[in-house]
Design brief:
Elements lengths: L1 H45 L1 H9 L6 H13 L6 H22 L3 H4 L2 H36 L3 H8 L25
Length: 184
């Protein structure tokens, strides 16, 4: 009879180890996925000096906007929560959109090869951000499901695993594409 109790205890320990390892794996995959989002977002911020140098020559009154971008960039921290980072990214997107709206007033800037190259690089980075964000949100979904399902939810509470937020960022390039079939 003692061997039955021993086998049962060993089985319980093995199940606990398996469940804990599943939780750790899901948590680490989710953290890695957010790191990918962060890397893509940093690439977008690295484009800002290019935008500053391109726009400076054309728009002297846009200096405040460019200073706002620099402040937001400086405020970013690796220690931010997903929600805090999302708020900062939304501010950044709003400011950048303002820059693009003001560029409409400068046709020579809009037609400049430097500005067109900047826009192409931004579109590529925005696509990278979207892919990284989708992967992060997928790992977040899987992680959240894991910590809410029985019996892993018991171990998740016991070991302090908490539900995580999805990351929604307002992409700068998310607009309708205008197709001109006129050729004029």
């Amino acid at each position: 009879m003692a061997w039955v109790v021993t086998i049962a205890c060993i089985a319980v320990i093995i199940v606990c180890i398996i469940i804990f390892n599943k939780l750790v794996k899901a948590s680490n995959l989710n953290s890695e996925a957010f790191s990918n989002v962060d890397t893509a977002l940093k690439k977008r911020y690295d484009l800002i000096p290019n935008l500053e140098s391109i726009v400076k020559g054309y728009t002297s009154h846009e200096k405040n906007t460019l200073e706002d971008i620099a402040k937001i960039r400086t405020n970013l921290s690796n220690k931010m929560t997903v929600d805090d980072r999302q708020r900062e990214e939304d501010k950044f997107s709003t400011v950048i959109k303002d820059v693009f709206v003001s560029v409409e007033n400068y046709p020579e800037l809009k037609a400049s090869q430097n500005f067109l190259s900047f826009q192409q690089a931004l579109v590529k980075i925005e696509e990278d951000i979207e892919m990284a964000r989708r992967y992060y949100n997928g790992t977040t979904r899987n992680y959240n499901i894991l910590i809410e399902q029985f019996p892993t939810n018991i171990f998740a509470k016991l070991f302090g695993f908490e539900k995580r937020s999805y990351f929604e960022v307002d992409l700068l390039t998310r607009e309708n594409v205008n197709v001109d079939f006129g050729g004029e």
